[in-house]
Structure formats: C-alpha cells, structure tokens
UniProtKB/TrEMBL annotation:
The lineage of its organism: Bacteria, Pseudomonadati, Pseudomonadota, Alphaproteobacteria, Hyphomicrobiales. Keywords: Activator, ATP-binding, DNA-binding, Nucleotide-binding, Transcription, Transcription regulation, Two-component regulatory system. This is Sigma-54-dependent Fis family transcriptional regulator. Gene3D superfamilies: 1.10.8.60, 3.30.450.40, Homeodomain-like, P-loop containing nucleotide triphosphate hydrolases. It holds the Pfam family GAF. Residues 332-558 form the Sigma-54 factor interaction domain. It comes from Ciceribacter thiooxidans. PROSITE patterns: SIGMA54_INTERACT_1, SIGMA54_INTERACT_2, SIGMA54_INTERACT_3, SIGMA54_INTERACT_4. It comes from the Bacteria. InterPro entries: AAA+_ATPase (IPR003593), AAA_lid_NorR (IPR058031), GAF (IPR003018), GAF-like_dom_sf (IPR029016), Homeodomain-like_sf (IPR009057), HTH_Fis (IPR002197), P-loop_NTPase (IPR027417), Sigma_54_int (IPR002078).
C-alpha cells in the first residue's frame, strides 16, 4: 500500500467507514485524529528523548527493570533469532530498556527501536506501545496498522505490565524492523510477550509482599507450582494488599467488577472473593498435593491455589572482630612521610564501616591496600575481590548478585550464590568500579542502601552485611559529570578516599624492592641483588608501578644464578631506560648521578630548571637526587 492509499484509508476510517481493520486499530486511529489532532499526511521522524530525560526515566523505572531483567533476557533469547528487538517502555512510552542486535543499530535508531525512543500515541501515532498504554491490553500493531507512514514497515507486539496496585507500570514490546509475514503470525509473539509479563508481575509481587501471605492460582493443578496464572497478596488481617494483572482480573470477575478499577479490589477482605476463610487459604501450602488445593471463587468457578507464607527476615549477622592489624598495616610500605600518613589514615578508617574508595594508577597496589584494610578492620568474614572490568557485562549481575534456580538457560539448577553474599560479614572489594554497567550500578546502589541482595530471577531478597572498598584508576567524579556513573552511587562509595601514589613518586622504593626480593626468594635460599642492579632499579621510572616492579623481580629471580640478581638478569626495558644508573660497578655514583650533577651545574644549581631540561618534574628530580646521594646545591 502506498503513502496516498494509507492516508486515504485513515481518513475514511475517521469518517466512520469500515475498511476491515481490527477494532483496536480503528479506535487508535480515531484517537490520533480526534484527540491528538495528528495529520496522517505528515510523516514524523522517530522521537528520541535527550540523555538527561532518558536518565530520569530510567531511574524511575529501575525497580521494575531490576525485577524484569531476567525475564526480558530470556524472552529476547527466544526471539532474537527471528530478528526481533525487545523494548521495555515506561508508562509514558519512553523506552527505558532495549535488547537488540547491535549490528543493525543505525536502522533501529532511525526506526525508533532504540533506548530513549518515545512511543506514546500523541507523539508517534498508532503504535503497539502507545495503543497498549491507551487500552491496557496486549496487542499487535502490524505494518499499515501504524498511523504514521514512517512506522509502516514495522510489526510490533506489546503487552502491559501492571504494578501490584493494579496501575499500568510499563509496556513490554517485541518488534520486527521489517516483516514479510501476516499479522496472524504475531499471535505466537503475543503469547510469548504475555507470558513473560505474567512472570515479571509475579516476581514483582513476590518482591513486594515479603511480609504478606501470597496466593497463586491456576486453572490446572499441573501448572500451579511452575507457572501460575494469577497471584494476590494478603496481609495478616486478611485484606488484599497486591495483585498481578491476572489476579486483578480474577478478583474482578469473582464479583462482577471492572478490573480497571483496582481501588475496588485493593484493601478489600479476601473472603469477599473466595468461598473460604483466611485460615483455610493459608493452609493451601505445598504440604498438600496441588490437586488437593482446590478453592471455590464467588463467581462459581473452581481454581487450584498455592499459599506462600510470609517470609521472616534473617537476623543481621554481627560483624565480629579479630586482630591482625599491626602486622598487616606494616605491609603498606616503608617508613617515609607519605606512606606513614597513609598508614595513619588506614589504621583509623579500617575498623569503621565507612565505604572506602581507593584511587591510584593501575598497579599502584590498590588491591594490596584493600586487603590490608580488611585485615586491619577485624571483620570475620571473607575478603572477596571482584574485578568489574574483567567480567563480561552480561554476567556481571549474576556474578555479583547470584541467581535463582532456573533463572536463565545455562544456570545451575539449584541457583548460585553471588559474590556479594560470599562477602557477607567481610569485605567486598570492587576493583575497576568505573567499568560497572549502568544497570549494575543501580542494583548495587540498592544492595548498599537496603542491605539486601536479590538474586537474578529471584523474588526473595537475602540480608547481607559487608564493608565495601572500591577502586578505580579512572576519575569517578569525571564519569559522574559525563553521566556514565551514577552520582548517588558515587557518594555512597566515596565516604572515605585513599590515594596511592605512583611508584615513581614513592620514596620507599628501596623498602618495596626488599619486600619483593623476599617474596620471590626460592625456598631456603634468600634472593639478593647486586648494587649495580639495585641502582638500576632505583633510577628507573616504573610506569607500570609496583606491579611492573613485582614482575621485573619475578623475571630476574627466574634468570639469576646462585640467588643474586645482576643487571643482566633485569628485563631489557629496565636496563635500557634506567639511564645507566650504574654500570656493572659497585659505585653508587654512577653515570646517572654524574649526568644529574652536570645538568645541575649547567643550571647553576637551579633544580627546577634542571628538571625542565631533563623533561621531568621537580618532585622526581628531588627524588632522583636523594636516591643518588646528590645534595641540593646551595
Ligand atoms: N605495598 C606493597 N608491598 C608489596 N607488594 C605490593 C605492594 N603494593 C602492591 N604490591 C604488589 O604489586 C602488584 C600490583 O598490586 P595490586 O594488584 O594491588 O595493584 P592495583 O592498583 O590493584 O592494580 P590494578 O589497578 O591493575 O587493579 C601485586 O602483585 C601486589 O602484591
């Protein structure tokens, strides 16, 4: 159908003609013409909201997205091969979650199948998300059902997600960019989307009714425990506190009410809807077989029910203390002012429960410091280190939060504890926190705020108590300014900030060298180093920090004869770039020292000028002078 025909059909429908379109499409076209005054002859580009607005929408929807995530991923895996993309829109029609093949990114963006795209009817005309918001029903808007000619290649199927109070919270949509197939082929898609929504609503109800009795219902006993059709929650006084959409329909049908009026359902006594007392309802637990858990609804129908008792909160784990502080703190570094200062801070901060943010270039010893903090803290639980940059983005949430049994394909049948729970009673070290995906940041924030962790695909949060130490070699403050790191999470993590200097700025390099020689000594044989090799190490800049030094000593330890490291055993780049501090002599006044003296003399003792000529900063210059035993000229 061409553009002109499409416009003509909409106009005819607007005037009351029947062109054979589904009623749901006809009603939407009329809303577009009459209520929103849209012109079918004027094609509109897809609307994508600004980053700032998108962030606001995503923050508001984050609770739902968190609960829906495993369901969304599962649905996407089922449909991705048929080239569907998946959109979760909030109740304003703004896409807050998107799963699609990144290889056709540009076309999807143009078509509005993208994060931040706005699919409300007033903005986009008849479309699946918009019509779903307007009607509250699952539906398909296929190709020329769309009002706007821009969207007519698309085939979209959407279902509404209701919150536990019966209000529309979001819309789940799967869309095909172009589709040669007939509209009826989307019936299957609608079924898939609707069953995903049912599971999401159930998970949401479970998460929100931890202290209430939950009743799940199914028409057949076989599905009762695995895929119930409806669920409601009931408080200790027997009043309805929440429901899934299926639950709302069931309650409304029981009394001949309209499910669109949830205020007639929420807060009402459950016994108004069922021919059973509260005690009888609470006894429908797994203790009896599903087929024996039959219950009569007031409209005369019979259902099977499953009662889930309110969950008790787990008692908080006392964080016991142990000692180990003095020894641990001495491993921080040598006795030089900067490190002594750091040591003082660590001693004071470690026993508190304040979250600590460690800053420092890569390899400066952030994890080493985090372990020291843990040992000095006296926490009895484990130290669990997580490198957020090393875990693939798709796995980060299940690694951190764990997952419930059967949460996704490939998951262990009995589920798995996440790293956060492993750290219960101890310290969770989040390395490279700046690489944590945005969605994971939101979930982490929630764990820190509530002290509870909800496994992926799970509905029962578990209490956890741990100390968080995080680290990043990137500036989190800059990331917050750029909108890639959550500001609220940033403020939660950086209650105390400790900075580790680059190795080139550490005056305790000789101390570190000695510790690493001890570390790499082979059993029973002390590892030593010749003066020349030592000087070479002391005058090298160590851009890779303590890690590079550690690796260099490990390398030399493997090469050296009779436990003595000579210059020839050091890695080539160290010998090449160390400025020949000392040829193989025992003379501490090597060529490097002579060079420095010469430059200083040429600059009439002006250290800043000498540093400038050598292309190093003044602090480094002073440090080199100290190392090489050169006094400051007067
Ligand atoms: N004070 C120290 N004493 C002895 N060894 C140290 C010290 N600091 C760091 N190291 C060693 O240096 C190496 C690198 O340290 P660590 O892994 O803690 O650095 P990092 O800053 O966390 O690195 P990245 O930013 O790459 O995660 C480790 O092998 C560690 O044992």
């Amino acid at each position: 159908m061409g553009f002109a025909d499409h416009v003509r059909e909409i106009e005819r429908v607007g005037k009351g003609s029947n062109t054979g379109r589904d009623a749901i499409v006809v009603e939407s076209w009329r809303r577009c013409l009459e209520t929103y005054q849209l012109d079918p002859a004027q094609a509109r580009e897809a609307v994508i909201v600004s980053q700032t607005r998108l962030r606001e929408h995503r923050q508001q929807a984050e609770d739902l997205v968190r609960i829906a995530r495993s369901g969304l991923e599962r649905l996407y895996r089922q449909v991705a091969q048929q080239n569907y993309v998946l959109l979760l829109s909030d109740r304003q029609g703004v896409t807050v979650e998107f799963l699609g093949d990144p290889s056709f990114n540009n076309n999807l963006r143009k078509a509005g199948l993208y994060l931040g795209s706005e699919w409300s009817e007033p903005r986009a005309g008849t479309c699946a998300v918009g019509a779903c918001i307007a009607t509250g029903e699952a539906l398909t808007i296929h190709q020329t059902d769309h009002f706007d000619i821009t969207h007519t290649p698309l085939s979209c199927t959407a279902a509404p997600i209701y919150d536990t109070q019966g209000s529309l919270a979001a819309v789940l949509d799967i869309s095909l960019l172009s589709s040669p197939i007939l509209k009826t082929s989307q019936n299957m898609a609608r079924h898939l989307v609707s069953s995903t929504v049912r599971r999401i609503e159930l998970a949401n109800l479970m998460a929100n009714s931890r202290h209430d009795l939950v009743l799940r219902f199914a028409g057949a006993p076989e599905f009762l425990d695995v895929d119930p059709e409806a669920a409601i929650s009931v408080d200790g006084a027997g009043r309805i506190t929440g429901m899934t959409h299926g639950g709302a329909r069931l309650l409304a049908a029981s009394r001949g009410l309209d499910w669109r009026m949830p205020e007639l359902l929420i807060g009402q006594p459950v016994t108004d809807f069922f021919l059973a007392g509260l005690d009888e309802l609470s006894s429908l637990t797994r203790a009896s077989l599903p087929q024996d858990r039959r219950i009569a609804v007031r409209d005369g129908s019979l259902l099977f029910a499953h009662a889930i008792e309110p969950q008790q909160r787990t008692a908080s784990v006392p964080l016991a203390r142990s000692s180990g502080g003095p020894l641990a703190i001495s491993r921080l570094g040598g006795s030089v002012p900067a490190i002594d200062n750091l040591r003082r801070k660590v001693t004071k901060l470690a026993p508190s429960r304040l979250p600590i943010l460690l800053q420092g270039e890569t390899g400066t010893g952030k994890e080493h410091l985090a372990r020291i903090v843990h040992e000095v803290s006296g926490l009895s639980g484990r130290f669990v280190a997580v490198n957020c940059a090393a875990i693939p983005e798709q796995l980060i949430e299940s690694e951190l939060f764990g997952y419930a049994p059967g949460a996704f394909t490939g998951a262990l049948a009995k589920g798995r504890k996440g790293l956060i729970e492993e750290a219960d009673g101890g310290t969770l070290f989040l390395d490279e926190i700046g690489d944590m995906p945005y969605a994971g940041q939101s979930r982490l924030l929630r764990v820190l705020a509530e002290g509870e962790v909800l496994p992926v695909g799970g509905s029962a949060p578990r209490k956890v108590e741990f100390r968080v130490v995080s680290a990043s070699h990137r500036s989190l403050a800059d990331m917050v300014a750029a909108g890639t790191f959550r500001e609220d999470l940033y403020y939660r993590l950086n209650a105390a900030v400790l900075s580790l200097p680059p190795l080139a700025e550490r005056d305790d390099l000789p101390w570190l060298l000695d510790r690493l020689l001890e570390k790499h000594a082979k059993e029973g044989l002390p590892l030593r180093i010749s003066t020349a090799a030592r000087l070479m190490i002391l005058s090298y800049r160590w851009p890779g920090n303590v890690r590079e030094l550690d690796n260099a000593i490990a390398f030399a330890a493997a090469l050296c004869d009779e436990g003595v490291i000579e210059t020839a055993d050091l890695p080539d780049h160290v010998t090449r770039l160390s400025g020949n501090a000392a040829e193989d002599t025992n003379d501490a006044d090597g060529k490097d020292a002579a060079d420095l003296r010469a430059v200083l003399a040429a600059c009439k003792g002006n250290v800043s000028e000498a540093a400038r000529r050598l292309g190093i900063d003044r602090t480094t210059m002073h440090r080199r002078m100290r190392r090489l035993g050169i006094d400051r000229p007067h």
